[in-house]
């Protein structure tokens, strides 16, 4: 604490990201990164972007990337915004669509950044409890509000909401902006992008950090009505016009063009997820059926925190959230088959 700090910063509890340990051999299953590297085509595109052109600022509007994304997702470039990771876009949303005094509805168990941004930007919010089965109940989101923000599939529960329920949220709240964070949708959810022509209050946010193996590049996209996109552009241009560098723009475009690697990596992860779910269950764990690239697993009678620490001391990193209702679970990113078998051996040893 320092006398120069603003009152907001004195009062805020920032988001705590998963550890990025630098030690040698470790099994890193704590931040939902993709275990497979970006394809050669993507790496080549980025190397080709390392030219003298770096002396120039990048295209602030990410024109080519927005065109590539629009044609990939069957929408138009005016309905696409590109940002420095989806976290940045989420932060911009709070400034673009809400004012102090507005009310947001947020699930009680979800991506913690949604509450951190609300606190940072002074937006009031109510947390809406998930059902005992960790489902988002659309009926529970019936209250009048200025915005709703949720992840579909949800994190860290891994559960997906059918598209019809997302549509109900947008339909029931025509005065509110409904923000759907689809960070994990490629692993098994239904995207709300096809709903966009029908709902001018719906914004869908995507990231290249998970299914596209590019967490280190920092690329996120938002899709929505051009008026919503315009608001995001305004916020960006009040903060930093050049959020996505030349190299990132080139890598992201190449990723959208490399469908084969993308699909094959997704298939491997989904296959490993299903094997790991069965093996963990056979080893006595309760595992929530996941539509994402991570699993929530608990072992009846054994505190998850102890397991987390014991794994950590063996250089196996998973995530533990000291939060009511989920503090009995480990969140385990789906890695390679080899990663999962090291994890399973360790867990079998510890339980
Ligand atoms: N949304 C959710 C639900 C996430 O789990 C994450 C990753 N921690 C993000 C957004 C942020 O992703 P990005 O790397 O694009 O900022």
From TrEMBL:
Pfam families: Aminotran_1_2 (PF00155). It is an enzyme of class 2 (transferase). It catalyses: L-histidinol phosphate + 2-oxoglutarate = 3-(imidazol-4-yl)-2-oxopropyl phosphate + L-glutamate. The modification N6-(pyridoxal phosphate)lysine is found at residue 210. One of its GO terms (molecular function) is pyridoxal phosphate binding. Its EC number is 2.6.1.9. The keyword Methyltransferase does not apply. InterPro entries: Aminotrans_II_pyridoxalP_BS (IPR001917), Aminotransferase_I/II_large (IPR004839), HisP_aminotrans (IPR005861), HistidinolP_aminotransfase (IPR050106), PyrdxlP-dep_Trfase (IPR015424), PyrdxlP-dep_Trfase_major (IPR015421), PyrdxlP-dep_Trfase_small (IPR015422). Its cofactor is pyridoxal 5'-phosphate. Pathway: Amino-acid biosynthesis; L-histidine biosynthesis; L-histidine from 5-phospho-alpha-D-ribose 1-diphosphate: step 7/9. Keywords: Amino-acid biosynthesis, Aminotransferase, Histidine biosynthesis, Pyridoxal phosphate, Transferase. Residues 26-347 form the Aminotransferase class I/classII large domain. Belongs to the class-II pyridoxal-phosphate-dependent aminotransferase family. Histidinol-phosphate aminotransferase subfamily. This is Histidinol-phosphate aminotransferase. It comes from Paenibacillus stellifer. The gene is hisC.
């Amino acid at each position: 604490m320092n006398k120069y700090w603003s009152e907001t910063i004195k009062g805020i509890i920032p988001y705590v990201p998963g550890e990025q340990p630098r030690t040698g051999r470790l099994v890193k299953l704590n931040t939902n990164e993709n275990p497979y590297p970006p394809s050669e085509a993507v790496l080549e595109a980025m190397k080709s972007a390392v030219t003298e052109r770096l002396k120039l600022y990048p295209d602030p509007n990410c024109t080519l990337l927005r065109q590539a994304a629009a044609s990939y997702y069957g929408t138009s470039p005016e309905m696409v915004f590109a940002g420095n990771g989806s976290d940045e876009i989420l932060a911009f949303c709070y400034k673009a669509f809400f004012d102090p005094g507005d009310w947001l509805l947020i699930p009680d168990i979800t991506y913690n950044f949604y509450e951190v941004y609300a606190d940072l930007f002074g937006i009031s919010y109510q947390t809406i409890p998930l059902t005992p089965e960790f489902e988002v109940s659309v009926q529970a989101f019936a209250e009048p509000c200025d915005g709703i923000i949720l992840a579909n599939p949800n994190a860290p529960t891994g559960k997906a909401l059918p598209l019809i329920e997302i549509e109900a949220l947008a339909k029931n709240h025509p005065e509110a902006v409904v923000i759907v964070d689809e960070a994990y949708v490629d692993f098994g959810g239904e995207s709300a992008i096809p709903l966009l022509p029908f709902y001018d209050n719906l914004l869908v946010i995507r990231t290249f950090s998970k299914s596209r193996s590019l967490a280190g590049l920092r690329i996120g996209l938002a899709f929505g009505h051009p008026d919503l996109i315009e608001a995001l552009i305004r916020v960006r241009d009040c903060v930093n016009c050049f959020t996505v560098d030349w190299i990132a723009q080139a890598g992201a475009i190449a990723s959208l063009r490399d469908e084969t690697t993308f699909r094959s990596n997704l298939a491997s992860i989904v296959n490993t997820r299903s094997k790991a779910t069965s093996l963990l269950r056979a080893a006595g764990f309760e595992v929530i059926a996941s539509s994402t690239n991570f699993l929530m697993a608990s072992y009846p009678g054994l505190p998850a925190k102890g397991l987390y620490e014991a794994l950590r001391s063996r250089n196996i990193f998973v995530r533990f959230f000291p939060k009511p209702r989920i503090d009995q679970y480990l969140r385990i990113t789906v890695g390679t088959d080899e990663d999962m078998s090291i994890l399973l051996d360790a867990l079998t040893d510890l339980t």
